[in-house]
């Protein structure tokens, strides 16, 4: 037995060796044939012909050079050249054979192995396609709570009362502005709560920077000889910016700054003593009107989210209310309690802008330079007990001073520059005035986009379900066309006609990932359904149900502009 096995193995090995040798011989001839074909017929493969010609010219030139000009021994170079040529002849067919074997194994394995990766990727593709479907503005079907998981009590008279106590986290933002969830029992709608994002508003906590008035800068000067008037002893060394001099009494009644520079003295300047004189001058601010302005900034903004809450119940109809939520402050609306748990605001440099107000109107303060008159309070501005920051550039002359001053007419800028007067509308932010208390206004900013919030909705309510049973009524909706635009704020609208067989009720409409609640009765009710799409051709499969198991299929289709 062992001999036969050994013979079989050797025979197989010999057959494989012969076949490999035959293949190598055939592969070598095939390689030389392709090389000759490329060299002799350059039209078929011009690149290979160029390379072959270059190699041939190089080898010919090298042989001529070695044979004719270099007196060296030819044995060693010839042996090296022959060995290199033999290695190339052996290596090229061997590499081709190994490549062919590898490709053949891969091809056979591909034929035998099923495309498991394709099968595994199919559900992921479906999920991705579902996630890429544009959400409609109507309502995101967040969750459905069943009363079967809650406590129900059956009284001795046969009345069944069920109590639901649950909390749901809803995420709203400027892209997905609506979210809703439903409370059902045995397939019939008991209550639906729908929250719609209206806006995110920020209320400014004001911090006063200063009070000011519209002023004009004026200059008064006076020349004094040495040892006369205020030009005594130390002369200008004892004069500071707050000094009030008799020579400058015209400007002493207004806020200002006083300066002194040494000037010429002696008989040539009309003075008796041969010494330097004093040139006094004062820059002061004179009010141009009686208006008092306050410049303030907003180091902190109080966040408020305005939510429209809609409650739908079959026996009570539809009820709407507007809820203003502040972070961590719960708001109760009936049996529901809403709490703003978190909020995300995009970076908005415009919130650092200072504002100016005269007590009636407010505007953005756009002047880079601070105002000339700077007061600590409104009373100080009224009595002119203020400081000034002058921008005058003064050059002393012989007996007077020449000053160049720039005055900003605050009153003119405040009333004429309408683009900075509240209300302000920009694509990224809106500013307006609002009353926080009686006769007290504040700046309110609205962020129109890129904001996200999370709202906790807690419901604790009891339902008397004695009169509620499983209904087998079918709400039918006919196929309808959708009209409107795509990739636009207005969206597209489909007006459906819902008709129930038995009694007036509420129907649940589900189109892909979008859910609606519409009224139905035996005569039929028309309700608009609003969507937003990113493509022109629309063909949505929808279904309607009025409770129970029975569902009706219909289609909404159309071409948007």
TrEMBL record:
Query: InterPro entries in the record, alphabetically?
Result: Phlebovirus_G2_fusion (IPR009878)
Q: Which Pfam families match?
A: Phlebovirus_G2 (PF07245)
Provide the Phlebovirus glycoprotein G2 fusion domain boundaries: 139-454
Q: Does the keyword Transcription regulation apply?
A: no
**Keywords assigned by UniProt?**
Membrane, Transmembrane, Transmembrane helix
Looking up Gene3D superfamilies in the UniProt record yields: 2.60.40.3770, 2.60.98.50
Q: Where are the transmembrane segments?
A: 48-72
Q: What is this protein identified as?
A: Phlebovirus glycoprotein G2 fusion domain-containing protein
From what organism does this protein derive?
Answer: Ancylostoma caninum
